Amino acid sequence: MSVLTAEVAKRAMDAIPPQAMGRVAGVLGLKVRVVGLDAAVSDLVEVQGPSPVLAEVTAVDREGLTCLPLAPVEGVQVGAAVRATGGPLTVAVGEQLLGRVLDGLGRPIDGRALPDGLERVGVDHEAPNALDRPRIDRQLGLGVRALDTLVPCGRGQRLGIMAGSGVGKSSLLSMIARGTDADVNVIALVGERGREVSEFIHHDLGPEGLARSVVVVATSDAPAVERMRSAFVATRIAEWFRDQGKDVVLMMDSLTRVSMAQREIGLSAGEPPATRGYPPSVFGLMPRLLERAGTSPHGSITGLYTVLIEGDDLQDPIGDTARSILDGHVVLSRRLATAGHFPSIDVLESISRTTSRITDPEQQQAARRLRKLLAAHRDVRELVEIGAYASGSDPDADAALASMGAIDGFLQQSMDDQTPTPDAWNRLRQVVAA
């Protein structure tokens, strides 16, 4: 009888292997110290409490693990049991995600469960090999005339949208989501106000835009790890669609809030603050995230990343680092926004580094002509306002003053107006030929 019992116990132990358990040694600020448990950096552990709390391992040393929780830790006590999950964060991917709204960890928040049959993949993924990336040689229409003609975007390009608060970044992204030629939109709203999320999805994006989009949301009250990880979750979903041969637009609002979340994480883990309080890990995270977008042998991810400029200073650390990594940038002007000019794109301060490869010489000449007129108008605007400009002093300025009504009509566009790219180029030719 005892032999039989021992055999049954052995089979049971083989079927359900014992789990390694650690315990909480302390909770301080954002971090939880765990001892007695083996895990690697980026692995998830589960802290037992009134309700189990997942935490991500961010640092390891001989004394234990430093973990950052993915949910509030109210009720967690010293000595609470901690279980290793055996791996890092994973996310469900598949065609059925289109039209869905997920939280920063890839869980549905739109009131519907995820369908069966979705594949689960790790959030961390290698960027395509630099030598395996096809060249960017085709334009991707965004539906916004000022962008498609004066700051053209290629399929697989990465553009930064630089702006201060309240100048129309989210509205511009919603226009692009509805008007782009891409097959799929993946939209990451990181650190947004909770009130604005529903407004963006139902009003700005609308049913038409949502139907071909996957929206990942981590509001400003979400834990720092969730806000940071939401950027990687959205990128991983976009990578899956790219691997299926699709052209994807990945829109992230905003890269600055991802960096601020990583700043919280780094400082909590004991990193020293560096430039404006950002620890070194922030400047290591940005290329690791941004390089994952782009072309691959299968499809493309066109990345549009908003960068919240502190005090409208384009030289702030995050904006400066982003410009050095990305393939161009679009600057939104507060002066234009307050004047009711939408979209408030400062064409003269914006640049696309792939223009020469995705447009033909005739298109480039038309765009250069309009830029020249805008620059001439900028140079004489103050003189005109005080009545000090003499007509005939500058032929370009005279042409710009005569054409500004048509130019403004071309550059301004309502949110409900999605202009196909060929029509945008035709309108540009008409404006510069007038």
What does this 3D model show about the protein?
This protein is an alpha/beta fold and 434 residues long. The protein is 38% helix and 23% strand. It is built from 13 helices and 17 strands. The chain has helices at residues 2-15, 145-150, 169-179, 194-211, 224-243, 255-268, 280-290, 317-325, 334-338, 355-358, 361-385, 395-411, 421-433; strands at residues 21-28, 31-35, 43-47, 53-61, 64-69, 81-88, 90-93, 101-103, 119-122, 158-163, 184-192, 213-219, 247-253, 294-295, 300-308, 328-331, 351-352. Strands 8, 10, 11, 12, 13, 14, 15, 16 and 17 form a 9-stranded mixed beta sheet that branches. A hairpin with a 4-residue loop joins β14 (294-295) and β15 (300-308). The longest helix has 25 residues, at 361-385. It is elongated and about 100 Å long. The termini are far apart. 45% of the residues are buried. The mean pLDDT is 89.
Overview features:
434 residues, alpha/beta, six-stranded antiparallel beta barrel
Report the uncertain regions. none
Order of helices and strands: HEEEEEEEEEHEHEHEHEHHEEHEHEHHHH
Shape: elongated
Query: How is the biggest beta sheet arranged?
Result: 9 strands, mixed
Strand segment count: 17
Count, helices? 13
How large is the share of residues in beta strands? 15-25%
Helical residue percent band: 25-40%
- The overall pLDDT, averaged over residues, is 89
Supply the helix-strand structural class. Answer: alpha/beta
Q: What Rg is obtained from the alpha carbons, in whole angstroms?
A: 26 Å
N-to-C terminal Cα separation, in Å? 101 Å
